[in-house]
Amino acid sequence: MAEAFLEKQQSVDIRVCDIWGKPFDGLAPFLGNKQGKMKVLMVHGVGNHWPGYSTQFVEKLAEELDLPVMSAQYKNISLTSRLDSSKNLGNLRINRLLSKDKSRELMFYELTWSAITAKQKEVLAYDNSGEYAFRRAEVNDLMKKFSNDTSPDPIIYLGESREDILVSFGQSLCWMTKSNWADLPDDVKQACSFNDDTTATNMRIDQYAFISHSLGSRIIIDGMQRIASFLDKRDADFAEALKNKEIPIYMMSNQLPMLQLGRKLPDVSNQKAAYCQPNGEKYNQRMLSKTPIIAFSDPNDLLSYAIPHGFVEKYLDSRLCVDVTNININVATIFDAFGLGKLANPIDAHVGYDTDNRVIALIAKGIGNQNTAKIVNDRCRWVETVD
């Protein structure tokens, strides 16, 4: 009877999908870029990850974008530092997706940085052993192991490992801009340099987007600020090319408000008009032309937060020229717990974004345009905002 009751609830999907923000195009319009390529970098969040963690997401994204042709082999680069080649800064895996007639192309870059924090998290490994685990109730044990895997990462990120994680992101962006498919190395441990003519040239002609999960969102924001801080001094051509780019960030399980706690305010804030308007007095000092943030948050995800009004102006660097679209979406199924109230699994609510068809469709084709997916038009409520 219990199974039948739950199955009946699952048969009619009434999960929420509410969107507040400006129209956005998604990835689809840029796949036919005749001059350059459409390149996407995915950055994972808390918890141990291994290369290939994005496989299901990539396959669903390829299906939504009608890209049925895939490279026979991935390319893998073991990331390291230009200043210390002995460091293990994670793995960058690259995949190439194509339309049947090869006229549309997407290069997908998957960054796995959790090797940087794995050693420090071994301090808690004993708590997952049989010596302690069997003493817990089964559900509590599952939750405790999830906590042991995910909770340390934001703490570690605030310590000495933060710089290595940001270098890992910077190296990923460098490889992303430096090479096209045929020029990318494979199965090597190698550092990349922005001080190369191809990086500036590709930045001008290629299109870019970031996809992140939880802590990955903070890594991208901090990583872009770090790169911009030294580029003006080292590579003016690349910095100038970056200033003219619009690079969206699709944030799944957005945690920016929580991860702002205890941090200093950015060096430049509350000055968006000065940096981002063409007639602004500091327009030439911007980092990017525009950074649209599309923030996905499930209200039943205990680790996810919407971006509130005023947060961008106060807590994000004005030179990024950020615009926010908040998407309140149930990625976990909500059940009626036999009259005791509504219930959704908080773990499913945290990890379910990258397999949700509505999330995939929004990233692929956006909203408020002629290509918007049917599932989004049918299942999501959109409130358009204007300046």
Can you walk through the features of this model?
The chain is of the alpha/beta class and 387 residues long. It has one domain. The protein is 36% helix and 18% strand. It contains 16 helices and 14 strands. Strands 1, 2, 3, 4, 5, 6, 7, 8, 9, 10, 11 and 14 form a twelve-stranded mixed sheet that branches. A hairpin with a 6-residue loop joins β5 (91-98) and β6 (105-112). The chain starts with a helix and ends with a strand. The model has no long low-confidence stretch (mean pLDDT 88).
Features:
globular; single chain; 387 residues; alpha/beta; 18% strand; 14 strands; 12-stranded mixed β-sheet; two-stranded antiparallel sheet
Layout of helices and strands:
Blueprint: H1 2-11, E1 17-21, E2 38-43, H2 55-64, E3 69-70, E4 75-78, E5 91-98, E6 105-112, H3 115-121, H4 130-133, H5 138-150, H6 152-157, H7 161-178, E7 188-189, H8 197-205, E8 207-213, H9 215-234, H10 236-243, E9 249-252, H11 256-259, H12 272-276, E10 291-297, H13 311-315, E11 322-329, E12 334-336, E13 342-344, H14 346-351, H15 357-365, H16 374-379, E14 381-384
Parallel strand pairs: 1-14, 2-6, 2-8, 4-7, 8-9, 9-10, 10-11
Antiparallel strand pairs: 1-11, 3-5, 4-5, 5-6, 12-13
Helix pairs in contact: 2-15, 7-9, 8-10, 9-10
Radius of gyration: 21 Å
Report the total helices: 16
Strand count = 14
What fraction, in percent, of the residue positions are helical?
25-40%
What separation lies between the terminal Cα atoms? 53 Å
Beta percentage is 15-25%
- Quaternary structure classification: single chain
Instruction: Count the domains.
Output: 1
* Backbone structural class: alpha/beta
Order of helices and strands: HEEHEEEEHHHHHEHEHHEHHEHEEEHHHE
Shape: globular
